[in-house]
Specification:
about 210 residues; alpha/beta; Rossmann fold; nine-stranded mixed β-sheet; two-stranded parallel sheet; 7 helices; 11 strands; globular; NAD(P)-bd_dom_sf; Sugar epimerase
Length: about 210
């Protein structure tokens, strides 16, 4: 597959792009919103396209043209206000889902947040973030796309272990970003993850085995 990574400048996005660049079965296109970001990736030999999640659906669809799958791992980040959370994590995701349908791309992987599907377990200090993730996931689930929703636990920058736990209802846990990127790559053509949503934390199963159990 040719994979469009939305959120290429984020920490998971950067790791995923390197994995896809080294992968023999898939190719990658990085979607970025700044020319300097595009220049940095092109110096690494990564195909890039300029598009903004606060732009139009048509511009995102054009950016995705010719791709076979989209991975949405974008986020407004913890230093922005609730307005950007609404515009990027929710509306940006919604636009990207619409763009995938418009561009005829069927495969879509969403990086969400642990327990985004269960309001009772949302953390009080980031309720707008959880609400954005919750409804973005619901939009995807109601689409015609062959989706996978990965809800990682607390994200860590330490080296990955290659072992995870994946299930529909894990209430708490953490996971290295490196392992999330590997799980996204493994999920791309793992049919057992199609039309599935699950939490993902560090565990005892190899990533490929864990994805077969969800």
């Amino acid at each position: 597959m040719k994979v469009l990574v939305v959120g290429s400048n984020g920490q998971i996005g950067q790791r995923l792009i390197q994995l896809l660049k080294e992968n023999k079965e898939h190719t990658v296109r990085a979607m970025v919103r700044k020319k300097e970001q595009a220049d940095a990736y092109e110096k690494q030999g990564v195909e890039t396209v300029l598009a903004d999640l606060e732009g139009t659906v048509d511009s995102i669809a054009e950016a995705a043209k010719g791709c076979d799958a989209i991975v949405f791992t974008a986020g407004s980040g913890g230093k922005t206000g609730d307005d950007k959370t609404l515009l990027i994590d929710l509306d940006g995701a919604g636009k990207t889902i619409e763009a995938a349908e418009k561009a005829g791309i069927d495969r879509f992987i969403m990086v969400s947040a642990i327990q985004a599907n269960n309001r009772e377990n949302w953390h009080d200090n980031i309720l707008p973030y959880y609400a954005a993730k919750h409804y973005a996931d619901r939009v995807l689930e109601s689409s015609r796309l062959t989706y996978t929703i990965i809800r990682p636990g607390i994200l860590l920058n330490e080296p990955g272990t290659g072992k995870v736990s994946a299930a529909e209802n894990i209430t708490y846990g953490s996971i290295p970003r490196e392992d999330v990127a590997h799980a996204i790559l493994a999920a791309l053509d793992e049919k057992h993850t199609y039309k599935r949503a699950f939490d993902l934390i560090t565990g005892d199963d190899l990533i490929a085995d864990a994805l077969k159990k969800v």
